Amino acid sequence: MADVMDAPVSRRPPAGGETRTGRIIGISVVAALGGFLFGFDTAVINGTVAALKAEFAASSLGLGLAVSSALVGSAAGAFAAGPFADRYGRRRAMMLAAALFIISAIGSGLAFSLWDLSFWRLVGGLGGGV
């Protein structure tokens, strides 16, 4: 049996490795903050349930829909994001997500009924899923 020797391995990082590491850490932090925003959204909407019930004379069903619509939207957005990004590119997918967030924020702020608020939260959830 012949002896096989491995080629020597360089222990030096590739050129520009420190810059890449910093960028990767930055991207990871931003991505992790996106996950924290779901918890923040849940806390914020739960803090407004009593006010929503009083303002819109909402039923339990309507309140449940308003609270959960963002999560339903995010599931649908996550399901559609991959094929969309494959077809149109990641940059356009991120631009779509940002546009959905902006539209959702404006629509939620101007909501005239609980169903309207639920719709705009669904749109925001789509952006979050993308």
TrEMBL record:
Listed GO CC annotations: membrane
Record carries keyword Transmembrane helix: yes
PROSITE patterns: MFS, SUGAR_TRANSPORT_1
InterPro entries, sorted: MFS_dom (IPR020846), MFS_sugar_transport-like (IPR005828), MFS_Sugar_Transporter (IPR050820), MFS_trans_sf (IPR036259), Sugar_transporter_CS (IPR005829)
GO MF, any single term: transmembrane transporter activity
Similarity annotation: Belongs to the major facilitator superfamily. Sugar transporter (TC 2.A.1.1) family.
Protein name: MFS transporter
